[in-house]
Design the sequence.
């Protein structure tokens, strides 16, 4: 198991996620999640993606410099990440989209009972 201190580095987490198949970077535009890779050129609605995990990072010099990295998987198998600032510096387009994804996930019922 990786040391917690080592895991806190954004670069280390991104490298680990890339090795785990999260190779694409995403952005949110007009309420949709888009791949940044021009050769892939895909976009998704909130019900087409799942937040698999997320990592929160605090700035070393200023705790207000907080960011969150999300590991996301789309229904077609495309995996990637998107990062946003936390709090007052947050990207509202990203936050609004991810809130929709989270709300959809909360409304699902487990199939294995």
Sequence:
């Amino acid at each position: 198991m990786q040391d917690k201190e080592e895991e806190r580095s954004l670069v280390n987490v991104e490298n680990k996620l890339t090795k785990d198949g999260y190779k694409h970077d995403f952005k949110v535009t007009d309420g949709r999640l888009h791949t940044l890779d021009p050769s892939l050129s895909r976009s998704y609605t909130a019900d087409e993606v799942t937040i698999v995990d997320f990592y929160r990072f605090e700035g070393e010099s200023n705790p207000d410099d907080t960011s969150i990295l999300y590991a996301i998987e789309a229904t077609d198998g495309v995996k990637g990440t998107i990062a946003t600032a936390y709090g007052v510096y947050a990207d509202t387009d990203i936050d609004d989209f991810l809130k929709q994804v989270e709300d959809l996930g909360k409304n699902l019922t487990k199939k294995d009972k």
Observations:
- The first strand starts at residue 24 and ends at 29.
- The domain at 4-105 is CATH 2.30.29 (PH-domain like).
- The chain is about 25% helix and 35% strand.
- The two ends are 31 Å apart (CA to CA).
